[in-house]
Design a protein that fits this description.
- By secondary structure, the protein is of the alpha/beta class.
- Helix content is about 25%, strand content about 25%.
- The chain contains twelve helices and 17 strands.
- Strands 9-10-11-12-13-14 form a six-stranded parallel beta sheet.
- It is globular, with a radius of gyration of 21 Å.
Amino acid sequence: MPAADLVLRAGRAVLPDGERPAAVLVTGGRVTAVLPADAPVTAAAEVVLAADEVLLPGLVDTHVHVNEPGRTEWEGFATATRAAAAGGITTIVDMPLNSLPPTVSVAALEAKRDAARGRVSVDIGFWGGAVPGNAADLPALRAAGVLGFKAFLVDSGVPEFPPLDAAGLALALATVGPLDALLLVHAEDPATLAGAPPPTGRAYRDFLASRPPTAETAAIATLLSAARAAAARVHVLHLSAAAAVPMLRAARAAGVRVTAETCPHYLALAAEDVPDGATEFKCCPPVREAANRDALWAALAAGDIDCVVSDHSPCTPDLKRADTGDFGAAWGGIASLQIALPVLWTEARRRGHTLADIARWQATAPAHLAGLHGKGRIAPGRDADFAVFAPDQPFTVDPARLAHRNPVTPYAGRRLTGTVRATYLRGHPVSDTPTGQLLVREGS
């Protein structure tokens, strides 16, 4: 009879080969076996999921702006990781900007690790930043354990993280290519944005016009050309313009190593439904029209988009400028870490997708993207990270119940389906005692 520290018995478990009943054995924080649900097991503890619950792999969110140190009033490691755990997310990867200092040197990475150590409820890895003048720092950052590098091709919104021009992009790719490191890119074209109408006022249609889809397609074309020339790996962040999908498909067919993500807000929201002055909906690139949203869903289903991550980018309420409703003046970012799963699932199930799709988009593919080979699947040898999910239970989003430091959300009052009832990190239920680990690149 197999022995384990813990066995979880589920009538429905989402496994690499599909959904089925299973008994998942855990010893030493890792999955040791996946057996039939009624298999006899000797275990120190046993958890039997309720009939309406599904065992999912712990979700992996590779696009989170924690903002600490330096802008902890926007968000912080303690609040962000509690929110992640409440949403079934067991691993996040922190973006290198909005903190002070940004993660563009080893010293800055250590400052961020010092701020996080002992305060995280889930596991956390870090992206480094590629900015003008720091190409020489990138190999050392890679050796210090960052999972890859992020760059902007347009103003990031914070002066300490400036964008790369064409020469800077080429240099960054030439530097990270030999390291086999991934370059993640915020792809909007500054010249296109400069020629668009200014984003001032309360009208959402005016803000939308200020960041047209051609800004994304032009920047992605630039990125793909540069990646091809450097033979480097690149990743398109927060794709909102479905018009870019054919060029991604063509580039892959030509041998360019490119992946792409989108976000729950681009798949759940539509420009036609955004009220004027509702700056909680502002993000960059923007939420586009319903037809574009449908095309993103088609691209996700076809595998042209690899994963779905939150781009959790919070700020203090005053920076959203609810007092004026001016989209031009408001901070651009949507905070959704805690509810990313139910937002996506509510829309996915309506479109005929399954929880196996959710696990692929929100766990397996992001873990693969970040090189976190112990994450993203319920399988022997993997970390025992799980989300216990009730996929049919509805709820209404109440900002007061969100664990984000500043619970400003475009989903306030929205009816969603699916609730996370428990989250396990390395075989233990996540509690108020922080037990998350600081992850480094495997092999570093």
